[in-house]
Structure formats: structure tokens, C-alpha cells
Amino acid sequence: MPGPTHQERPPVAAHPPLTRTDMEILDRWDAKPPGPARHQHIAQVIRALHTAWLAPLGVTLAPASPDARAGFLLRHPAAARAHARATDQCEVTVRASPSAVRICTTCGYARTWDALAALADALAEKVPDAGELWGGGVGRHTVPFGADSGSVMAGPG
């Protein structure tokens, strides 16, 4: 029986889900110096959290500007009201307009997680028929994380 050829590759293991604890560990491990790689990593987390929590609520995600540290704009008709309701948890976000909130990539991983979870909670109350946000395999404590295409970039590729 012939052995594997160079064209056959072993299956790529799926990345385990992200957790809030992972964010605390990353804050300690990836703390200094806060350079372009850290901004890109936080951008990946923002995209994963958006996909899991905010996109199902109708929130769109777009780069705030070409500057990696500028982060993203989260757009939704109730974004500003949700931000106002969740202000104590959303210290890393800024109200950009009545329908947009900006989240930067210069803050820590755990603060980013907490801010987006608070926004998701507040928006779930504003969105008719939102259902149970933390059901259907997506939870507040774990978030699926796959290959990050970087299709919505907030920094160097």
C-alpha cells in the first residue's frame, strides 16, 4: 500500500471556542508592547463576537477608518440607545451617531468582550422577536472561533 503523497494533507483542527477566561489570559500574555499585531488580534475577536452575538440582531460591522487603532463601527438603528443603557460596561465604546457605536482595538481583550456582551444584551431588549440571544449554541461564555478571513479589516492584513 503506497504512503501518503505530498498532495494529501491531514485535516486542519478546528480552533476551540473563545471564552471570557481566554480574554483575561490574552490581556496578560499579549499586553506589551501594544503594536499592530495586538490590534489585529483584538480585531479578530471583535469580528468573532460580532458574528456570534450582534449580527443575529441586525448589527453591521465596518472599519471606522484605515487606522488599525480606530477599530470598527457597529451600526444598528438602536445602537445609541443600547450604548446608553450599557454605558457602565461599554467604557471601550463611543457613540458615533444615533445608529452607530465605535469600538476600538486599543483596549484589552476582556474589556472588549464585556462591552460587546453588554451591547448585545441591551440590543436584544430593543430588537423585536430577538428571542433568547444566548441560546442556539451561542452563549455568553463561549463563542465559536474559526478561520478569520479578515474581510472587515481594521488594520494591516
Descriptive account of the structure:
The chain is built from 4 helices and 6 strands. The chain has 157 residues and is α+β, with helices and mostly antiparallel strands. A 4-stranded antiparallel β-sheet has the order 2-3-5-4, covered by helices on one side. A hairpin with an 8-residue loop joins strand 2 and strand 3. Residues 149-157 have low confidence and may be disordered. The chain has helices at residues 20-29, 36-54, 79-85, 109-126; strands spanning 18-19, 60-63, 72-75, 93-97, 100-103, 142-143. Helix 2 (36-54) runs parallel beside helix 4 (109-126).
**Shape estimate:** globular
Rounded average pLDDT: 74
Number of helices: 4
**Beta-strand content:** 5-15%
**Percentage of residues assigned to helices:** 25-40%
Structural class: alpha+beta
- Cα-atom Rg, whole angstroms? 17 Å
